[in-house]
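Practice record 12: protein with calcium ion.
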Amino acid sequence: MESKRNVLIVEDEKNIVDILRFNLQRAGYDTIEAYDGEDGLARAIADRPDLILLDVMLPKKNGFDVCRALRERNDNVPVIILTAREEEADKVLGLEIGADDYITKPFSMRELIARVGANIRRTAIAAPALPSAAAAAMPVSGDLSINTDSHQVFRGGTAIDLTQREYELLVFLASHPNKVYSRIDLMEQVWNYGYVGDDARTVDVAVRRLREKIEEDPANPVYILTRRGAGYLFSVTRP
Ligand code: CA
C-alpha cells in the first residue's frame, strides 16, 4: 500500500493548526506541525514533507524567508503560502520567491484540501537522475526531453529540477505544441482553478520561473513563447 503523504503545517495560530490538522488527516494525510519559521524550516529539512502549508507572519523567521531558504537549498517541495486577504502583494512576492501556490485566509477547507491535492508531490521520493531515465526520456523540442514515467525533464541529458507545478505546466504546453493558451486557459487546465480575479498573474510567474530553468537565455526563450495579448505556447524546433 502506498504510504500516506506528509503535510507540514507552519502556522503560529494554534486554532488554525488544529483545524488544518483535523481536516488534512480526515482527507488521508499525515501532518507535522511547526509554530514558528525556524522550526518550520528545520522540520522541512529533517522530515522531508510532501507539501508545506506556510503562513507568512510567523515568529523568528517569516514564511517568505523559510520558502527562500528552501529554494536556495534546491528543495523543490511544493509550498502553499497562507496569506491574509488584504495582503495582495504577498501573493506575488510568494510566487516570485518560489512558492507554488497561495491561499487567502479565511479559506474554505474544501478549497484548501483541493489545493493541497493539486500541488502535492506525485512521486513520494524525488527520483535520482538515472542515466536510464535520461535515455528513456522523450525528446520534445531542441535538446529538451521529458520522461513522463519518472516525471523528469532533461536538457541535453542533464536533469532539470522542476517543481510539480512547473513540470505539469511544461508537460501540458509541450503536449500541445505550437498551440496558444491564454493565462485563463492555463489556470483552468494546469491549476484546475476557475478563473478568479488577478490569479492569472500566477501563470506569468510560473512561466518565468520555468523559463529560468529550461531556457538557455530566459530573456530570449525558444521553448515557451509569449503571444502578446493571447497567451503562451510551446514552440517545437528541430535540433
Ligand atoms: Ca501568523
